[in-house]
User: Fold Calcineurin-like phosphoesterase domain-containing protein from Catenibacillus scindens.
Amino acid sequence: MALYALGDLHLSFQADKPMDSFGRVWKHHERKIEKYVNQIVKPEDTLVLTGDHSWGRKLEECREDLAFIENLPGRKILLRGNHDMFWDAKKTERLNREFSPRLFFLQNNFAVYKDYALVGTKGFAFEGPFYVNYRGQIIGWDEERQIQAKKLVDREMTRLRESFRLAYGAGYRKFIMFLHYPPTSVLEKTSPFTEIAREYGVETVVYSHCHGESRFGDSIRGDFQGVHYILVSGDYLNFHPALVKE
Ligand SMILES: [Fe+2]
Ligand SMILES: [Fe+2]
Assistant:
């Protein structure tokens, strides 16, 4: 039994959104997902998909993408990504009712893996616009957008705290935390997300969203303040699910 994670499948079986234009790694990426997930994940395993599942704008436009995910091996847990328009933040329970027991949607709730609580939310990290000098160094940013970003971080922190509260209340003391966005923006060393991970003694933080060679290093990878951070963007892993916990 093992716990795996993979993010940003960006499926488009019903939407006209070929991913090939984003680089070679995205060519027929759905075939790679199917192949590698089937090679690596066993039926008794758990696979957390960390958001940006589908390009469909509403649930009816995502049916085939979600069916594709259902057909992958293992227990599937889904996190909300910034592109997951089908997933209204207020309707997570409805999704869970409709897709149970085939898929579990993680938000304002938690899942269990062995003696770990799997907690998570979409998260948010300020992404500019940044102003850069001729050397490519950041010398400023859009301050209004930064104020807006702070509100989004606060809202996501409320959801994440609820996930921790419920898990803690149910007696769990070991945590693995999932985010769609990276835990810190390129301007930050720490954030409310890294702080809560430290506060609860989270073992591992898993996130994705960062695409392309130049963005993979945007946030923390490896050990930081006693917490292990893993980036699981599909293109970063060439669509091989990452082992989070045996
Ligand atoms: Fe993405
Ligand atoms: Fe994303």
User: Anything to note?
Assistant: The CA atoms of residues 76 and 244 lie 14 Å apart. Residues 8, 10, 52, 81, 209, 211 surround fe (ii) ion (ligand 1) (CB under 6 Å). DSSP finds five helices and 13 strands in the chain.
